[in-house]
């Protein structure tokens, strides 16, 4: 009896306290911006996005200091599967009060999440995915495509290869949205420059580890350039096995259309040397990128410098929170499209990409860089991998607004 | 140029050869699985992780201790085999009396944990491992360039498969093992230490996976996922060959490598699926597998 009475008292006290704490939590939530970092935490793209992206987002928040509102960061693993990514995005928006989703590598997942962010009128800042469709047919008033895209890679690397005499191509393409987009965009450049595409082969994704069969097919087409429209472990295995089969020694050129610095690290300079690639961020590019790298590196997994995707997450979070501060938390939370519109109205500037802007179709503009991977003898230390061949201005690097077929800018 | 089914003959020969090379990996991995299943009745889902551990152990020996590929070829199967012995002794032996499913769940769980630990330590992109200088270069076969290293893989895998088959089918030790599978208590009554024999068999099966890992290190990206990509295919190979059939798993391994290789020419998009289609057909027509006893 005694116990029950005490129990009753406790329950009553809790009931009395509950509405107060609940409304307190609601007030707290109303003054909090919640950012969800959605990417590959366990698969092939973990190193180039993964936990490092979240660390870069937290770095941006720390650097902004006191904003007058709270910022909370959550992260999740989409396992490179559109169904998993969609479920997480819906749960975040509907139940967990997430205001903005960041990163989302893997184009198939990225396109799925873009639709959900638009439907729920939230903010979607994509750094990790490549498909240029995100600012083309699938563009949305809620999306900003931050770091790079297939059109830019195709023009940068593809254009450079054609200029260097590589006028006949064979593609080894990962069989999903990203690979198809990258092959299409590159093939357009090759043909526009007077080159020919002799053939292509679509490799199952994920799950292909042996590329020798495809490399031999590519070789028997007698193409001068083998275009690798794949990423991550697929690209690493392709390059490794091309070297093994002596393709490069016999004059066939490999165009790694999407190569990240983590891939070069994995290949080792002995195998990767001479590879030409396009990125928008390299940690050792200039004083500002070096300063950013120094600030964030101690927290990164394995102390690796940030990749361009992770740097993109830093830059996107920084700009988004600045926009929220200008327009007010309530307005930013009420409409994701309004927040993105505000972001487009403000010029961007940060240590990762320098000065830039966001175009009406959601394309973030900044320069792109054509790099060549150093020879082992040229490298002065760990992660010293690239030498700069050419800087492409922001206007030249990305697809012209008129060519994208983005429905929201045509009207 | 001569053509077969619209494909230039040289290209076709090249693909057959490449299929055989991939088949060598399937054969070596499914061999280890078949040995373990045949004698322990355990469906060893840690096999992929153990293959990966073999590749990483080779990398560690080279970069941390300075021991080259040839030493790794001998040391790694022993080291990783020893971890298998430990695992059997600590955990797996508690499950022999239970349903297959428990062994499957335990080994699958351990595989996931091992993969996660390696991913945390080494990241997901993988590590470089060069082909040993003695085996670099390529032979010009007329219809294709065959890297010396791939030729070595096929030859070495064939020797290992043959040796394993001889040990199990033709030696006294193998006879004990086979007898113990049929009736363990009877064999024990003859004064043979059956539990120890079973433990060492598991270690040997794991050692085979690790050896395949060392062979794979110079060709594939040495990354924590490398085993899980391969293991599902290898299980299909074992099912097609007949669970527990040693010769069956070897022949099916090489055979399916070739079938997959040809699919990569005629219908590349389906190359990841073809083995499972064959598996479904075999299961419908011969549920015990091509070489299994019903």
TrEMBL record, chain A:
PROSITE patterns: TAT
UniProt keyword 4Fe-4S, yes or no: no
Domain Leucine-binding protein positions: 32-374
SUPFAM superfamilies xrefs: Periplasmic binding protein-like I
InterPro entries: BCAA_transport, Leu-bd, Peripla_BP_I, TAT_signal
Family: Belongs to the leucine-binding protein family.
Keywords: Amino-acid transport, Signal, Transport
Name of the protein in question: ABC transporter substrate-binding protein
Native organism: Plastoroseomonas hellenica
From TrEMBL, chain B:
One Pfam assignment: BPD_transp_2
Keyword check for Metal-binding: no
Keywords attached to this entry: Amino-acid transport, Cell membrane, Membrane, Transmembrane, Transmembrane helix, Transport
Residues spanning the membrane: 12-35, 42-62, 68-89, 101-118, 149-168, 200-220, 232-259, 265-285
Subcellular compartments: Cell membrane
InterPro entries noted in UniProt: ABC_transp_permease, BCAA_transport_permease
Membrane topology: Multi-pass membrane protein
Keyword Membrane appears in the UniProt entry: yes
Lineage top rank: taxon: Bacteria
Similarity-based family: Belongs to the binding-protein-dependent transport system permease family. LivHM subfamily.
Protein name: Branched-chain amino acid ABC transporter permease
Species: Plastoroseomonas hellenica
Native organism taxonomy: Bacteria, Pseudomonadati, Pseudomonadota, Alphaproteobacteria, Acetobacterales
């Amino acid at each position: 009896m005694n116990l029950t009475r005490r129990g009753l008292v406790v329950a009553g006290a809790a009931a009395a306290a509950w509405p107060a704490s609940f409304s307190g939590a609601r007030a707290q939530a109303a003054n909090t911006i919640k950012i969800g970092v959605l990417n590959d935490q366990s698969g092939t793209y973990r190193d180039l996005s993964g936990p490092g992206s979240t660390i870069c987002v937290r770095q941006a928040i720390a650097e902004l200091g006191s904003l007058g509102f709270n910022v909370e960061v959550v992260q999740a693993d989409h396992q490179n599967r559109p169904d998993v990514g969609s479920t997480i995005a819906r749960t975040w928006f509907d139940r967990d009060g997430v205001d903005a989703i960041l990163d989302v590598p893997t184009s198939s997942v990225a396109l799925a999440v873009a639709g959900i962010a638009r439907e729920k009128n939230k903010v979607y800042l994509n750094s990790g995915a490549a498909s240029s469709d995100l600012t083309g047919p699938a563009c949305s008033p809620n999306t900003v495509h931050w770091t790079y895209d297939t059109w830019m890679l195709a023009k940068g690397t593809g254009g450079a290869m054609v200029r260097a005499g590589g006028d006949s191509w064979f593609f080894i393409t990962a069989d999903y949205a990203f690979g198809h987009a990258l092959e299409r965009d590159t093939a357009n450049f090759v043909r526009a420059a007077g080159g020919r595409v002799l053939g292509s082969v679509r490799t199952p994704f994920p799950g292909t580890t042996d590329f020798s069969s495809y490399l031999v097919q590519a070789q028997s087409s007698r193409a001068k350039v083998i275009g690798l429209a794949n990423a991550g472990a697929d690209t690493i295995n392709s390059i490794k096995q091309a070297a093994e089969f002596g393709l490069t020694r016999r004059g066939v050129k490999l165009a790694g259309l999407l190569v990240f610095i983590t891939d070069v690290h994995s290949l080792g300079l002995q195998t990767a040397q001479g590879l030409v690639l396009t990125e928008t961020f390299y940690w050792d590019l200039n004083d500002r990128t070096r300063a950013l790298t120094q600030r964030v590196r101690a927290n990164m997994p394995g102390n690796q410098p940030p990749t361009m995707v992770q740097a993109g997450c830093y830059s996107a979070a920084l700009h988004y929170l600045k926009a929220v501060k200008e327009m007010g938390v309530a307005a930013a939370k009420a409409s994701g499209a309004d927040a993105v519109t505000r972001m487009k109205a403000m010029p961007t500037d940060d240590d990762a990409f320098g000065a830039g802007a966001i175009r009406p179709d959601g394309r973030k503009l900044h320069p792109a860089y054509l790099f060549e991977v150093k020879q082992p003898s040229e490298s002065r230390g760990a992660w010293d991998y690239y030498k700069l061949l050419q800087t492409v201005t922001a206007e030249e690097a990305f697809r012209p607004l008129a060519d994208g077929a983005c429905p929201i800018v045509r009207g | 140029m001569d053509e077969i089914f619209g494909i230039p003959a040289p290209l076709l020969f090249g693909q057959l050869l490449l299929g055989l090379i991939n088949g060598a990996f399937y054969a070596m991995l499914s061999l280890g699985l078949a040995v373990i299943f045949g004698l322990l009745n355990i469906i060893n889902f840690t096999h992929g992780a153990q293959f990966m551990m073999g590749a990483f152990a080779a990398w560690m020996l080279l970069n941390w201790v300075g021991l080259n590929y040839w030493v790794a070829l001998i040391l790694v199967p022993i080291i990783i085999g020893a971890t298998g012995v430990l695992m059997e002794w600590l955990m797996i032996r508690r499950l022999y009396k239970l349903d297959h499913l428990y062994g499957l769940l335990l080994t699958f769980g351990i595989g996931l944990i091992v993969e996660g630990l390696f991913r945390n330590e080494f990241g997901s992109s993988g590590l470089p491992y060069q082909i040993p200088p003695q085996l670099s270069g390529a032979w010009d076969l007329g219809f294709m360039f065959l890297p010396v290293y791939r030729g070595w893989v096929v030859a070495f895998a064939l020797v290992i498969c043959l040796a394993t088959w001889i040990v199990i089918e033709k030696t006294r030790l193998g006879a004990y093992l086979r007898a113990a599978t049929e009736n363990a208590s009877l064999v024990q009554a003859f004064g043979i230490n059956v539990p120890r024999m079973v433990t060492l068999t598991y270690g040997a099966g794991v050692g085979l996976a690790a050896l395949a890992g060392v062979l794979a290190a110079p060709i594939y990206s040495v990354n924590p996922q490398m085993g899980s990509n391969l293991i599902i295919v290898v299980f299909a190979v074992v099912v097609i060959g007949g669970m527990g059939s040693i010769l069956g798993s070897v022949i099916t391994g090489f055979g399916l490598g070739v079938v997959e290789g040809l699919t990569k020419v005629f219908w590349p998009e389906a190359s990841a699926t073809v083995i499972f289609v064959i598996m479904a057909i075999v299961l419908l027509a011969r549920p015990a597998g091509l070489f299994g006893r019903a």
